[in-house]
Amino acid sequence: MDTTNDTLDDSIFDFFSKCGTDATRQECDRLAVSLAGHPIAPVPVQGACSYTVVAGPTQDAIFQFRSLQESPIDPKLLQLVKEIHGDLVPTTIPYGTIGNDSPLQVVLMQKLPGITHLEARLAMASSIGHSVDQGMVKQNTVTDLAQCFIAELEKAQRLSHSEIRSLRDDIEKKLEILLRNLPDRFKEVIKDIRTSLDSLFTKWPLTLSHEDLTEMNVLINPSTGHLTGIVDWNNARIVPFGLGLYGVESFLGTMENNGWKYYSNVEQIRVTFQELLRTAMAKNLPDLSEAEAHSKLMLAKRLGFLLHYGFVFGDGDGERPVKEGDRNMMYLEAFLL
Question: 206, 177, 204, 203: which is closest to 190 by C-alpha?
Answer without folding.
Answer: 177
